[in-house]
Specification:
Elements lengths: L1 E8 L5 E8 L6 E11 L1 H5 L7 E2 L5 E7 L11 E4 L9 H4 L21 H6 L1 E3 L2 E2 L1 E2 L9 E5 L3 E3 L6 H5 L1 H16 L7 E4 L3 H13 L4 E5 L2 H10 L3 E4 L8 H10 L5 E6 L9 H5 E9 L19 E3 L8 H14 L8 E5 L4 H9 L5 E5 L3
Parallel strand pairs: 4-9, 12-13, 12-15, 13-14, 15-16, 16-17, 18-19
Antiparallel strand pairs: 1-2, 1-4, 2-7, 3-5, 3-10, 3-19, 5-6, 6-11, 7-8
Helix pairs in contact: 5-6
Length: 370
Amino acid sequence: MIKSKAAIASGEGKFSIQTIEISEPINDEILVKIKAAGICHTDWDSQSWGKTLVMGHEGAGEVVAIGEAVKNFSLGDKVMLNWAIPCYECFQCQEGNQHICERNSAVTAGNKVSGGHATFESTIFNGQAIEKAFSLGTMSEYTLVREAACVKIHVDMPFTSAAIVGCGVMTGYGSVINAAKVKPGANVAVLGTGGVGLNVIQGARIAGAGKIIAVDVNPLRLEMALEYGATHTLLTEKEDVGLLKAAEAVKDLCGGRGADYAFECTAIPDLGAAPLAMIRNAGTAVQVSGIEQEITIDMNLFEWDKVYINPLYGKCRPQIDFPILQDLYAKGDLFLDEMVTRTYALEDLAQAFQDMHEGKNAKGVIRFED
């Protein structure tokens, strides 16, 4: 067993830094020494999921041990981790929907994943087996994962930048490229310019969009949006119900017709229908942030021929998309180093969460010392 310092969620809205024990890898498992772990709102939410678990679902590190059935990785390989772990054999994986694997996805399988030893039995806290967030648990010095959770880092990039690819970057970029398939020259509106929204903006820029209109209540976030590719910004008000006033401004910027695509990245249920108000007839509205609450939609917003889609995780195919993102980074098209606004020690996670809630960071990252 390997001892590892880790952030442990209580399940009742709190966390603490504790020591866990991790088994040696067997079968197709890989032991990863985590070098950096991204911080997002899902990590904050995981404190209140009603169970004790190792926190963290974004990470990158180095392979330090492998099971006997591992085929594609060797000791010393640098890897980034992917939380939507495909089995490559179920119906959805065969359909190309690896992000909603019917066997391993901690989201679509209702957390009843078939991860076996690596997911449920390999990590011990206070003498009991403990679950890891999304079968990863990256807010730990070490983690044991399935081979399918790992993607090799084949370009020169710091671990802090690699760590953030496996959630917000992939979700934003993939929602534009894989899900909406934004066309060159198209006009795009982005509602909310947090970490995911900034990556939607990056994706739109990379896709060759024409106008990229960032909408937010925070002027500091809008300044960031310009750095990542927004061509226009709209400072809206919290009192703007459904962002209908902002929608009129978007239409004015798009010749009175509306945007071709609009992406909701706020995670605010009351704004779930807002992108519909911003797109032209036969345009596409994309719900990116993962709203799961029941909402009411005025069906008049769908007139006419508008499409509303709700992709998960940018329709991620890790072994295809992550290398593409690495190549875009190496070319200078995908901004990752710039997105890591601040790094923290694991013991400073509370401060990292506070900075996240105050909107100070494009992205905060935990950096583990060697």
